[in-house]
User: Fold this.
Amino acid sequence: MIQSMTGYGKAVLQLPTKKVTIEIKSLNSKNLDLNVRIPSYYKEKELPVRKKLAAALVRGKVDFSIFVEMTADETSTTVNHGVVKEYIQQLRNVVQTAATDDVELLKMAVKMPDALKTEREELDENEWNLIDKNIDIAIEEIVQYRTDEAASLEIDFKQRIANIKMYLEEVKALDGDRIANVKARLKKAIDDLKVDTDENRFEQELIYYLEKLDINEEKVRLANHLDYFLETLATPDSNGKKLGFVIQEMGREINTTGSKANFAPMQKAVIQMKNELEQIKEQILNVL
Assistant:
């Protein structure tokens, strides 16, 4: 079963003093492009998080974020009273007047270095274990999102492959008329020259020319590629790159058929096949 590379997952954890929100977003990319944003006090856990995301998501442009909102009444940031008082005294000395508004001096003082001090929060392993479980929940959600997104893609792929098969049958049906048309055109061109020709030599040259225009191999190979695409689509794993390679081979056979066609009705069918294939190409870029 295929997976899309577009997805979104979210998990929210309410702890005694904080609310932790975990978000994962992904878009299509040739490889895994992982961007992780987490608070500094969880930084030591970044590598295991990256490994977990890489194993679950495999490929895509992935943005992972942990947002922390403090919900407790207490704060870890406090005013450094001694430092602020010293700043105010120094500012008074600068203006050299006792009439200076202390409120204005205080506004300036608290903006100075070390006026506020924040106690560094230490990593709580029990807390992280809860967060880690919620990361798993967010990953499960984005994987399910990718799977659901891919379900509609799979339906579209199957329909377009069926359309190409239909146009291929049309090409096969037109092949006899195409050969007859080519023979008639060549014969008319010779007759218009009003010169005597050796019928045996003409037939030999005609056979050689028609061999150059023969598309039997292209028809067989294209049919095989179409079946192989559907087989790969039905495998348990998502094989976006492999499907992309199969599409390239399909395109080669369709293009060769078009270049050899030399028959307007057949070329119209080839154009329709190209159109269906282009639609698949655009969508396959989003398959994992």
In short: The CA atoms of residues 179 and 210 lie 7 Å apart. The longest strand covers residues 60-70. Strands lie at 7-14, 18-27, 32-37, 60-70, 77-79, 116-118.
